[in-house]
Design a protein that fits this description.
The complex is a heterodimer of chains A (658) and B (589). With 658 residues, chain A is α+β, with helices and mostly antiparallel strands. Helices cover 16% and strands 39% of the residues of chain A. Chain A contains 10 helices and 41 strands. In chain A, strands 27, 28, 29, 30, 31, 35, 37, 38 and 39 form a 9-stranded mixed sheet that branches. Chain A has an 8-stranded mixed sheet with strand order 7-6-10-3-2-12-17-14, with no helix packed on it. In chain A, strands 1, 11, 13, 18 and 19 form a 5-stranded antiparallel sheet that branches. In chain A, a hairpin with an 8-residue loop joins β30 and β31. With 589 residues, chain B is an alpha+beta fold. Chain B has 9 helices and 38 strands. In chain B, the strands form 11 sheets. An 8-stranded mixed sheet of chain B has the order 27-28-26-25-32-36-35-34. In chain B, strands 22-21-20-23-24 form a 5-stranded antiparallel sheet. A 4-stranded antiparallel sheet of chain B has the order 1-8-3-4, with no helix packed on it. In chain B, α4 packs across α5. The chains are: A alpha+beta (658), B alpha+beta (589). At the A-B interface, β8 and α10 of A face β5, α7 and β27 of B.
Amino acid sequence: MKVFKLFFPLFIILHFSLEAQEYSREFGVIGKEEFELEEYAADKSAEAVVFFDIGQSKFIRSDNSFDIVFERTTRIKILSEAGIDWAEVEIPYYQEGEIYEKIYDLEAYTINYVDGLIQRSKLNTENCYTEKLNKYWNLKKFAMPNVKVGSIIEYRYKILSQYRFNLRDWDFQRRIPTVYSKYEVRMVPFYEYTFLLQGKGSFDYQNSYKDKKGLSHQFGPVKYNMMVHEYAMIDIPAFKDEEYISSINDFIIKIDFQLSRILHLNGSTTDILTSWPELIQDLSRHENFGRYVKKASKQASKLLDLNGLANESPRERFDKIISYVKGNYTWNKKNGKYASKSVSQFINDGYGNAADINLFTVGLLNAAGIEAYPLISSTRGNGTIKYDYPYSQFFNYVLIAALIDGEQIVSDATEILSAGNRIPTRCINDKGLLIDKAGLNWLPLSCNFNSSLSTTMLIEPSEDEVSARIIVKGTEYNALALRRQYGDDRKRIVEKLEDKGYSVNDTSIVVKNQLNIEKPYSIEYTVTNSSEYINDKIYLSPFLYETLEENPLKQNSRRYPIDMVYPSLKIYYAGIKIPDGYKIDFLPENYQFSNDKFELKYLTQQSDSMLSISFSYHFKKAVYSASDYLKIKFYFNDIVRKGNEKIVFSRDDEPSEE
Amino acid sequence: MYKTSTFEIKIYNRAGEKFTEVSIPYSEMDKVSKIEASIRDRNGNIVKKLKRNDISDRSAFSNGSFYQDYYLYEFTLKHNSYPYTLVYSYQRLQKEFFYLTDWTPVLRSNIPTRKALLNIEVPLDFKIHFDHYLIDNFVVDTLDESIIYSWLASYENTIDPEIYSERRENYFPNVAVVPGEFIFDIEGSYDSWESYGDYQFQLIQGLSELPASEQNRIRSLTRDIDSELEKIKILYHYLQDQTRYVNITIETGGLKPYPASYVAENKYGDCKALSNYFKSVLEYAGIKSNYTLVYASDDIKEIDKNFPSQQFNHVILSIPMDDDTLWLDCTSDGPFNQLGTFTQNRDAFVIDSNSSHFTRTPPLLMNEVIDSRTVVFRRDKNRRVVADFRINYHGEDFESLSGLSRQASETSLARIIRNYFIEDGFELIDFELIESPRDAREITLTYSAFANKVYNSYGSDIMLDMVPFYIPLFEEPEKRKLGVKIDYPINYIDTINYYIPEGYNIPNKLENKSIQNEYGEYTLRSQQESDRLTIVKRFLLNTGKYSLEEYPDFYKFIDEVYDIENSPAILLTRNIQNRKPINNAYKGN
């Protein structure tokens, strides 16, 4: 990840050939080539192509400050029917308090080439609609007129914004290919920004210069010229979705801008978060963060028996407080790093977002004499943290970090089915930043311990039916998955088991530790299924419906890492009673495979009347690189193959030895 | 019209907390006010009240809509000690309406309603029509200046969803009340279907004018065509090529179409706008068509004919021909004169001046839904087992695949095929979707895949697996609560061709199967020719409705077919004559 600072003039001009494909880049001017293009040579599957996407952010004077005008001009050609979706355009804008963004000068045309004539259809702006997404964000939407395969659409608009903290970001990449994408930022010397380029090492073209051609401007006593920064890329491929990736935000090519410093007229400067320690300071003092934790602390004595707690060990105090919060407050499924309401409101409502709940918990822990801090993080859907880039906007979540008897524990009180010292899978992502003024501390939030699933089956096959007692036990994230999948609701368990293909006796179901979350979860049940009895032989799948039946990886190749979230060990043991009058006719082969990424074992063992088979596999890592894809796919094939092999029993016609 | 709604929901545990998240829809045409909510604890004491600030507001669009002027007020009010009761109420003011209410006092099909009360108060001279169903009590009270109608209902025996079932709504109490006369954009009346038809007819008057350029186009497209059918087809293709479906609903947008000129200019519209536009196009070409209302959904909902009212959600065109009727869905990119699974075999209300009437759309027949599949097994050069599939789809699968092949990008098409159209247990190598010519009602998918699990070796035996049909999994008779309703037939045909490895034979010939009854049909036949074994099987499930009493018989049929389809197919054993010399040769060394 590269970080660049913009405030010293960079006269770097990178002159790659920007002439790969010569299409017009001017609104309203369209050449023959554009009309003639029927498929995009570099990506023949593309349903549409962006000829150009040109953006500019510039500062303009408002009464006694600056506003920002963002302007965008885009031209897209629709190449197939699937591409017609690109003719529905959405422009998000923001309105909150003093920030009142406004879209204006919107112009849009559909251009068709019909019978040798160019036909332009103008968007009637009466046919624009506003969708209110939430309290702050709106969408301006329009559907382009007269669109069919072969249409070229182009539109331009401006957005006036008072929001200087965060200049509009620019996505160079879309889900369709882009021939030319350029972003220009014209800055005044009173605001400094840093930018961050993701998904690519460098731009195809980059230039920074002082605009001497334009008039010089005056703000108070200061005369200045605009600083212009230009960034361009050519022939950007379409972003193609893949299954099992963490988030599109982690991979798409884009540039982000952040305000880093304000230079005042009197010569003084205000740094807007220039370092991680300063970010920590700022959050510690923030009304809806650090101060919220302190206020929660003050409420603790009303909610908890602090004196009683004082007699208990730190571990017990921690556990009790976490379960108190989990038992009394519900998560509203919203992420967030800032509290959304006051402490008293939260206590009264009994529900809140992740920050309300976890910051509150940190406050209670502190009140009970436990060293605990908020830990800000980014959830899986939100992308990874940029370590070189000390801005809070990349974080969207806050967790609890507590020090108990010298051990660092990370917790999340929103997840009632997880143990007190565990976080839910949505939070397993990279690292979190400890908000502790004493120093800079990153705590890993990846998962490198195993979650195991062990399944024991005692099977009695016969000619008519197969009956089995099955015990499934899960630890850690496998336990969490089982708690969510089965829980302790008998009706639901029966449904789920029937969906798997079993006929189940519901009085046989025993669930242990659904709520005792520190312990492994287990579920036991007895099933009967019809037997596969063919030609006097009994065919039996020793693991019934417990093992994986399909390879989850179906693509032939892959470009992004395979994220399995946590390492997982699965063990299956089947004890099979050899049916009376039968002998083993066929047994699958023993098999072992092991390397640093993966391990698989398949072992059979036979005693007088019993046959035992153990089958286990272990994905040793949580994340595998894209180059390992074919290996991982192959491992899954092995898992499916060995897990579904059958045993055959045939009639034992030999007289018994007795 | 003022409507006041009050709810009391008792929450017993955490799983019930989703019902504390309340959404109240409104639009530009009906304003909601006086939202109040509170929580009563187990003793009936009010412990919390909703504050104005806790209510948020946002747009709400249904799926597939580009824009609708619908909004939602949302709030959450919870308590942490169970059980507790959420009480909330609000008032709605509707200035124009064509329904007084369509009241179904059921929160969710799995949540009982202990008691529900509907009161409607209207002036003495205000005429209403109503229809009620599964109601506990109904009284009319005439006061000095008004009449109060009251209905009492409850819903105690909750119902879970079941596969291919009659509509669960049949078990919900319902009261529908409409005004005798109403003003919704223009004046209308629900006194009879004819009067409602006239209202709809009036609503689309004056919307048919087409710009001159469009008129020229229609003339030039149909200039030398004599056959009326051919003309309609050419114009329908023109409609499909030039316009697209975009759903925009504003105010009376709910009922009144955008004018034909709007579609001519923008080349898009919703079902009403596109139907009205195409009706105008046909009219200009001298062909009369009828604006026709239906209730579109996969699951057929019968129209309550005894209750003239707006019970439809879609508009299509019907064109009476000499000895037949043409049916055109103007939002469809599919074949000419073919209604899909969403509109087939149901009541259709044909709008015409003074003669609006009901008719029925044609049903999908057996041969219009057939999915026929050929699978050939072979070994590749690395001796892995490969299966070549060729599947010719009609009906529902044809609809979704041809829609996807037009509208989805190549990447998503590949993802969907990979995840939903490849037979379970097969590892895809490559596929091709072969489109048929325009207006054909079929599409063909071919693919090759490794068959990792079909040839299973057990010592000297090989067990071949069947490639099963997808047989829907019905509930066991003891558990089934609802009758069966199958809206269009299922018709599958398979030809599976296995190779027999050298040195193996089939000791027991596969038994032919044939089951035939009122529910459908299943047959299986096999034939061996040198080293190939071919199995031809067929499954047909008829369109039909079966009561719960008949269900065990119906289930028996399905279950029998399921068992045949999901047991291993054929046992191959090693040919003793072939094996011995090889073994001897080894021994000889």
